[in-house]
Predict the structure.
Amino acid sequence: MPAQPTRALRRLALAGIFAVAAIVVMAPGAALAQSAATVQKGPSGLPLPRFVSLKSNEVNVRAGPGTDYPMKWTFKRTGWPVEVVQEFDNWRRIRDSDGSEGWVYHSLLSSRRTALIAPWRTDPVPLYAEADDQGRVAALLEPNVMADVESCDKTWCEVFGEGWRGFISQKTLFGVYPNETFD
């Protein structure tokens, strides 16, 4: 009689091994489906987080999502890049390059893509004539210079400002995500 429980245990063990093998084989596809399904979207239907820019040269940032909340500070530059991290009704919680957060009314934000050149650095950042760090340096840009972003390809972004245009390493910008692509 002891042989029957042993046979049953072997069958159970084999079933467990096959179940684990099936999970391992299916896991990459399931992970891809899950990551696509878990892209967080706000009430606006747009992804969170996302980068935007300021539409006005005077944007009040509030402590909460409404005019009843006190102002924390005021931005004074059109086009300044900020990251939308939360939405509530018509209000957007934003984060700036320093990590400061507050709430802004949605109509004061633009989908225009801009970026700050390496606000965490103190030394100039090379702007290249081509998307190649072995190529000709077109300019040296100081940290915190604002740039319009035309496109990014996961490694390089084509950027421009008054009197200059070129390519910069994507990882040196606040205003685009690592590995983000857009035209």
